[in-house]
Amino acid sequence: MSRYEDFQDFRAKLNDKILSRGTKTTKRFFTLDGNAYEPGALDAKTKELLGLSASMVLRCDDCIAYHIDQAVQAGASDEELFEVFDIALIVGGSIVIPHMRRGVEFLEECRSMG
Amino acid sequence: MSRYEDFQDFRAKLNDKILSRGTKTTKRFFTLDGNAYEPGALDAKTKELLGLSASMVLRCDDCIAYHIDQAVQAGASDEELFEVFDIALIVGGSIVIPHMRRGVEFLEECRSMG
Amino acid sequence: MSRYEDFQDFRAKLNDKILSRGTKTTKRFFTLDGNAYEPGALDAKTKELLGLSASMVLRCDDCIAYHIDQAVQAGASDEELFEVFDIALIVGGSIVIPHMRRGVEFLEECRSMG
Amino acid sequence: MSRYEDFQDFRAKLNDKILSRGTKTTKRFFTLDGNAYEPGALDAKTKELLGLSASMVLRCDDCIAYHIDQAVQAGASDEELFEVFDIALIVGGSIVIPHMRRGVEFLEECRSMG
Amino acid sequence: MSRYEDFQDFRAKLNDKILSRGTKTTKRFFTLDGNAYEPGALDAKTKELLGLSASMVLRCDDCIAYHIDQAVQAGASDEELFEVFDIALIVGGSIVIPHMRRGVEFLEECRSMG
Amino acid sequence: MSRYEDFQDFRAKLNDKILSRGTKTTKRFFTLDGNAYEPGALDAKTKELLGLSASMVLRCDDCIAYHIDQAVQAGASDEELFEVFDIALIVGGSIVIPHMRRGVEFLEECRSMG
Question: Using an 8 Å Cβ cutoff, are F48 and F64 in contact?
Answer without folding.
Answer: no
